[in-house]
Design brief:
The complex is a heterodimer of chains A (321) and B (546). With 321 residues, chain A is mainly α. Chain A contains twelve helices and no strands. In chain B, strands 3, 4, 5, 6, 7, 8, 9, 10, 11, 12, 13, 14, 15 and 16 form a 14-stranded mixed sheet that branches. Chain B has a two-stranded antiparallel ribbon with strand order 1-2. The chains are: A mainly alpha (321), B alpha+beta (546).
């Protein structure tokens, strides 16, 4: 294949341009489609340099593959230098090229007011206590006694709610005067439990599933009160405060966030916040609070339960011992 | 075959790069019939996604509601702010669909469109939840109140004037004539005379919109969105409808003018200080500031530790810096419709109760907990720097540093400024758990000058580049010096840790460009030029190729 009618010099130049365009704009565009995030992932300058060097080396090998190729490649350059296009074209190129090179040298050497980028590790493990690795969310895995207690409460129509949701539930009960106060949760497990209570025979599996719905309801409220201002009502990292932080709040719906860590890790991060991070995770940039100062363990676990549920993610399973 | 595939891939990716992903806030088809099962689906979604703000009864009293300003909508009265219908009318289904899909910018109501957020709601789910929301207000069942059937919908003009200098100027005249400035202020910063202590129909205080901050324009900052807002009015608020007072053309021009007021944010994290030949300016009106580069600093409510505050009023501070061999000065500008120069220590909030584990909530309520009114707390702003030169990327925490890594704060106070006293405290902090400590009188080297005009503070703080004090930041050219901002709007109830703050930015004092850099560039030009002419000679002297 001799390149058809187009000269090797021009196909070479075109190849360099196309590869550059792909790296510079193509990869970010594709990344946006793949990640589904509203912003592109830019290709770092060093990587652009590596890709372009590889391209130039490959093209050099191709061009110098045979004398014939090389002759073809050099012919337009020779023609230009000889004045074959026109004498003024020769002069323009001979003056423009050194000026462009000089400008580039200046651009590269002049000191720039540009921040040296620092790599940040999002999920540091250097100070993650091993004891947290296998922690299980006690709210998701309630003990037999907890389930029994819930069944008793449900039978008596005296389910105890956390104070944060109690006011709203009570207002609802006062207004609607329901047969059973759990009726405000229109979900199948709760309906099934209420039917079983009515029939006088309560199954523990049903009760556990209904209790899960109650915990989710409480967890969502705690999330909305505590986490929503930054992480957003849908956990998409887009809360009303989000734009104020250079290090944006994490979007839990993204792949590679809360689904790649065990829930014990999530619990540890929520408890210790930014200040609990090791140096490689730039704790000084993180607005994540030390929630252990304000929220009880139970509240934190309920939030984590709701957070995974809202984000439609599941935590990574701890490696078996 | 191979060639075609490559061309396809190349063309495809480049086309993707050019295309803009548009979210669907317009439904592909009208609202489906609200069967019982359909609405019940909506009920489930409502409990999962909406009730913690809007409440189980739809009365806007969910657990998170009282901490938010603006508060979540009370659906039971059928009064909706953002509509395409005439004043006092119900919204159309499409209006509700738009709000649920896009959300309301700058508020807790965020986008639910599953093309915007991954775990969002599909078009059908959005219709389901809307059908449930409509059950809260009986008005929606009344055909006589249906804005579509009764012809109460406000349409966008069929043909519209383009956005240009002429229509903007025309819109400015309409802005004057319609007296928009009475509330929104001449420059649109919400600083009009009538703008304090306005209340909505529920008795909650509301603030007049600052039209220059597009990220706070709730129902959209596009010209057509703005057009709709003053055409329909905002129900339940003092914002009236102008659909009868102004014709389509005037309203479109006005929308163009409002659009032109919107501030365009800079997007860099390093403030390049301007090197000046003479004295470093202390006056905010000094001519030098016009040539200094501006950097916008975004601030968020202080939500890192109790007492947490999610309703800050200062979300943007624009900074400039200038220096010479001896001194450096920072100009900080921010919008604040009210000048607050009194400070009552007795009104300071005691955060002890809400700061404990197991407290009901560690956030300050939107209304009631702190006085958000005039004549109570002062306006104030602070610049924060690490006390010691930072090594590598390591810095103190942006929230007041820590016990082993202190920060230096320059805290400017409007009450001291108004009283003609030294207005800046040169202070230090070691973490938010400990109080900020002002340095001794002899270590106070920061001077300041401030002015408040047309709803905007302009404050200059100036200090020698270096000081002998151990707790002070020291400036020298060629370094990235971390810098962040704390801000308080007194009439918004802000004081102490109830404030807005930014994360780390940097200030950079440029060193003069070394002469060798120009020499390198010149050498490069000469060598390349020489080579070019040398090749030319070789080619011309050689016999022509076959």
């Amino acid at each position: 294949m001799s390149g058809g009618k187009i000269n090797k010099f021009w196909t070479t130049a075109l190849t360099i341009l196309v590869v550059f365009a792909l790296v510079k704009w193509g990869i970010p565009a594709v990344s946006r489609q793949l990640t589904g995030m509203p912003f592109p992932l830019t290709v770092p300058g060093t990587l652009v340099f590596i890709y372009m060097t590889l391209t130039v080396v490959a093209l050099f090998l191709l061009v110098t593959f045979s004398d014939e190729y090389l002759r073809e490649f050099l012919s337009p350059i020779k023609k230009l230098l000889r004045g074959g296009y026109s004498e003024s074209a020769t002069w323009i190129v001979l003056i423009a090229v050194p000026l462009i090179v000089g400008w580039q040298v200046y651009e590269i050497t002049v000191p720039k007011v540009q921040l040296p980028s620092s790599l940040r590790i999002q999920h540091p493990s250097s100070n993650f206590p091993v004891s947290f690795e296998k922690l299980k969310n006690p709210i998701e895995n309630p003990s037999e006694a907890t389930i029994e207690a819930f069944i008793d409460q449900a039978k008596e129509n005296e389910v105890v709610f956390i104070p944060q949701v109690k006011e709203d539930v009570d207002a609802w009960a006062k207004e609607t005067d329901p047969d059973h106060m759990l009726e405000f949760l229109p979900f199948a497990p709760v309906k099934k439990l209420l039917a079983e209570i009515e029939a006088g025979k309560v199954n523990k599996v049903t009760a556990k599933a209904a209790l899960h719905e109650v915990n989710l309801f409480e967890g969502r409220a705690l999330y909305a009160m505590n986490c929503r201002p930054c992480h957003g009502d849908s956990t998409a990292g887009d809360g009303p405060m989000a734009d104020g932080f250079k290090l944006r709040p994490i979007n839990f719906t993204d792949n590679g966030t809360i689904e790649t860590i065990v829930e014990g890790y999530t619990f540890w991060r929520v408890a210790n916040g930014g200040p609990g991070l090791p140096t490689e995770a730039t704790p000084w940039d993180s607005a994540m609070p030390e929630w252990k100062l304000n929220l009880s363990e139970e509240e934190r676990w309920k939030i984590i339960l709701a957070e995974y549920n809202l984000a439609q993610k599941t935590p990574r399973i701890p490696e078996s011992e | 075959m191979m060639k075609a595939a490559i061309i396809l891939i190349v063309a495809g990716t480049l086309a993707l790069a050019a295309s803009n992903v548009l979210a669907a806030d317009i439904a592909s088809k009208p609202m489906p019939e609200a069967t019982e099962a359909f609405t019940e689906q909506g009920h489930q979604i409502y409990i999962q996604r909406c009730s913690f703000c809007h409440g189980l009864l739809g009365d806007g009293n969910g657990p998170a509601a009282k901490y938010m300003d603006p508060r979540p909508r009370d659906f039971t009265l059928g009064t909706f702010k953002f509509r395409t219908t005439q004043s006092g009318e119900l919204p159309t289904d499409t209006d509700l669909f738009r709000t649920v899909s896009r959300g309301l910018k700058g508020t807790g109501m965020q986008a639910f469109d599953n093309q915007i957020i991954k775990n969002g709601l599909s078009e059908e789910q959005r219709w389901q939840v809307i059908s449930y929301i409509k059950t809260f207000a009986p008005e929606f069942d009344d055909d006589e109140l249906d804005p579509v059937k009764t012809g109460k919908v406000v349409e966008l003009p069929a043909s519209t004037a383009p956005y240009n200098a002429e229509t903007v100027a025309k819109g400015k005249a309409v802005f004057e004539r319609a007296k928009c400035w009475e509330c929104h202020g001449r420059s649109g910063r919400g600083d009009g005379q009538k703008s304090f202590d306005r209340k909505d129909d529920w008795g909650f205080p509301i603030r007049i919109r600052n039209l220059t901050h597009p990220w706070k324009i709730k129902a959209g900052d596009r010209v057509e969105d703005i057009f709709m807002r003053f055409s329909t009015g905002i129900s339940g608020t003092p914002m009236p409808s102008f659909v009868k007072a102004l014709n389509d053309e005037d309203r479109w021009a006005l929308a163009n003018f409002i659009k032109s007021l919107q501030h365009k944010l800079t997007n860099h994290q390093v403030l390049k200080a301007l090197r000046v030949e003479g004295d470093v300016p202390l006056d905010p009106k000094a001519a030098e500031w016009a040539t200094a580069e501006a950097m916008d600093v975004r601030l968020a409510g202080q939500v890192v530790a109790a007492p947490r505050w999610q309703n800050p009023s200062i979300e943007l501070v624009t900074m400039r810096a200038a220096f010479n061999d001896k001194e450096i000065a920072f100009l900080m500008e921010w919008d604040d419709p009210f000048k607050d120069t009194t400070h009552k220590e007795g009104q300071v909030f005691n955060a002890k109760e809400i700061s404990k584990v197991g407290a009901f909530n560690s956030y300050i309520e939107g209304n009631g907990m702190i006085p958000r009114k005039l004549e109570t707390f002062r306006d104030s702003i602070a610049l924060q720097f690490p006390s010691k030169e930072t090594s590598g990327t390591k810095k103190p925490h942006f929230y007041r540093g820590g016990s082993s890594i202190p920060v230096n704060l320059w805290i400017w106070k409007a009450d001291a400024d108004a009283a003609g006293k030294r207005a800046v405290d040169d202070a230090g902090a070691r973490g938010w758990k400990q109080p900020v400590r002002a340095q001794g009188e002899k270590q106070q080297q920061v001077t300041s000058k401030a002015e408040w005009a047309a709803g905007r503070w302009r404050v200059v703080m100036k200090r020698p580049l270096t000081t002998p004090d151990r707790g002070d930041v020291q400036f020298s050219p060629g370094r990235f010096i971390p810098m962040s901002v704390n801000a308080w709007d007194g009439s918004n109830g802000e004081h102490g840790l109830i404030m807005s703050l930014s994360t780390w930015h940097y200030v950079f004092l440029e060193a003069p460009t070394p002469a060798k850099i120009y020499i390198y560039a010149l050498l490069a030009v000469l060598i390349t030029g020489g080579l070019g002419f040398w090749f030319r000679r070789i080619v011309r002297n050689a016999p022509a190729d076959a």
